[in-house]
Amino acid sequence: MIRIPNLKLEIKKAKSSAAEKEALKNVILSKLKVNPKDLLAFTIFKKSIDARKKNAIVYIYTVDASLKNEAAILKKGCKSGLTPSPDLSYHAVTPGSATLDLRPVIIGMGPAGLFAGLILARNGYAPIILERGDEVTIRSAKIDTFWQTGELDPESNVQFGEGGAGTFSDGKLTTLINDPRCRSILEAFIEAGAPEEILYLSKPHIGTDLLRETVQTLRQEIINNGGEVRFRARVTDFLIQNNQLTGLIINDYEKLDCRVALLGIGHSARDTFATLYDRGVTMTPKAFSIGVRIEHPQSLIDSAQYGSAAGTTGLGAADYKLSYHSPNGRSAYTFCMCPGGYVVAAASEANGVVTNGMSEHRRDGENANAALLVGVQPEDFGDDHPLAGVAFQRQWEARAFALGGRNYHAPAQLVGDFLADRPSTNWGSVKPTYTPGLNLTELKDCLPDYVVATMKEALLHFDQKIKGFAMADSIMTGVETRSSSPIRINRNNDHVANISGLYPMGEGAGYAGGIMSSAVDGVKTAEKIIQQYARFSSEN
After folding, report:
1. Which of 192, 185, 195 has its CA nearest to residue 361?
2. Residues 145-182: pLDDT tens digits?
3. Which long-range contacts (CB under 8 A, 24 or more apart) does 67-73 make?
4. Which residue of 265, 338, 384, 443 sits 20 to 30 Å from the alpha carbon of 9, by its own alpha carbon?
């Protein structure tokens, strides 16, 4: 097949899949200057929106086409960027020869744990997955209860449970990494029920509603291939002898013999971080970001990004990604933007308020929201202890809890009041989405001064990029502190920590950020196990 880049199509010509396919076929024929009978088939490899000219928004495609006389077409079209389509299939690694006398254990069932488990199960390694939270159906019910009543289950919430924190998000599958494993992960999601468009959209997402279904299907595949999944199974201690992992303690009382454990514990497993540190596992503090969630009317973002084409069928809800570098040396940026979404309560510990964003696949909510964050460095933590970043997060989450009323209501402020340095007293035209409730106040009381100052500068800068970003009635809800892990668990090139048999991976260990990069790191870690050990057999 031949890869053909940079094909443009007016948005009005792609109002349906059938119309899009026919129009795209004509564009291919025109570009290659071939007869229709010479084009045997084609598939979309990548699709994006070019909205730089609001009066002429177009889709940009890269396609893979099967044609007669491909060699001649490639030779003639080399200056047009035509290339042979690359092999994108996943290539499994070769199993090693060392004896695996005990089943490998995966701790945590977020993206890293889920896909590490899938690869190990598919290859005959019969993994055991231990997840401290509940399976997704029970988890969803407990989260709904928390959002309605403020009754928090510290073991089963937005951070902990089947699928990890990403299950209750927008389900974004974008990533900055360029790894061939990404496509195989997307294909696994599609096989589990995700829409096929995630394979080619430049900004793919599944949505929390569909993610809850797909993670259950992936779990069942792991089980069908010899794996085991245990919920409400929190690892409370690690047994180590002569610098070798020998076992795990589950829920304070159950011992599980173990020589190989993959740590996919997520960025909020603070108690596990502390236990690992106490057992001599080497870790270092890591930079992350803190700030707020900001909400605008989705219609404002649509108009700013798409102009008069806003609302056109197929374009969907518009998104944005913004960054700002302050003269004070700090950087601010938007993160995890959720078009047509909701701001959600994401606490995992008592007496702390944490916010996050979530949207469903249709992204048809009234508001758009995103994290508005400012970077913080280990020197900001006030201590050089490896877990100082955790204490730093807790400090601001506790302040937000107190400012919100000590009932998991969150502190909030209108953008106009924030910029004018005055407390908010009344809502404006934007209706907030956070539950269980909000308390209008001043956010400067639950954020560091340098974060507040940088956010003020960033709001005015972003308003120049997206007109209305600093609209007075927009809502800022505090605090967002879980942008990424506050630590990195050190590992070598084989993904092994300083304790033999312990394999840190994913976002919680400090090696990823988001669903895709975490899943890729889980796959790479599973491959390390496969390359070292022969397939597990109960007769070993």
Report:
1. 195
2. 999 999 999 999 999 999 999 999 888 898 877 888 99
3. 67/2, 67/32, 67/34, 67/38, 67/39, 67/40, 68/37, 68/38, 68/40, 69/38, 70/1, 70/2, 73/2, 73/32, 73/34
4. 338
Nearest one of 533, 531, 540 to 91, comparing CA atoms: 531
Cα 454 from Cα 49, distance rounded (Å) = 31
pLDDT digits (tens, 9 = 90+) for 36-86: 999 999 999 999 999 999 888 999 999 999 999 888 888 776 667 889 988
Q: Which residues contact 270 (CB under 8 A, 6 or more apart)?
A: 349, 387, 390, 394
**Residue 470 predicted with pLDDT over 60:** yes
Instruction: Judge whether 248 and 258 are in contact, CB under 8 Å.
Output: yes
CB atoms within 10 A of CB 318: 24
3-class state of residue 332 by DSSP: strand
CA distance 523 to 518: 9
Question: CB within 8 A of 358, min separation 6: which ones?
Answer: 168, 169, 170, 208, 338, 341, 342, 344
Taking CA atoms, 433 is separated from 21, 132, 207, 447, 451, in Å, by 38, 28, 17, 21, 24
pLDDT at residue 144, rounded to an integer: 97
Give the model confidence (pLDDT) of 231-260 as tens digits. Answer: 999 999 999 999 999 999 999 999 999 999
Residues in the chain: 540
What is d(CA 512, CA 287) in angstroms, rounded to the nearest whole number? 13
Q: Based on C-alpha coordinates, what's the Rg of the chain?
A: 24
H/E stretch holding 344: strand 342-345
Closest CA to 218 of 136, 134, 104, 105: 136
CA distances from 107 to 72, 247, 348 (A): 53, 12, 17
pLDDT at 130 over 90: yes
Can you spell out the DSSP letters for 401-413? HHHHTSSS-EEEE
d(CA 170, CA 186): 15
Q: Which pTM does this prediction carry?
A: 0.95
Distance of alpha carbon 504 from alpha carbon 266, whole angstroms: 10
* CB neighbourhood size of 92 (10 A): 12
Lowest mean pLDDT among 78-87, 378-387, 415-424, 474-483: 78-87
Beta strands 128-131 and 105-107 are parallel
Place of tokens 């690892």: 235
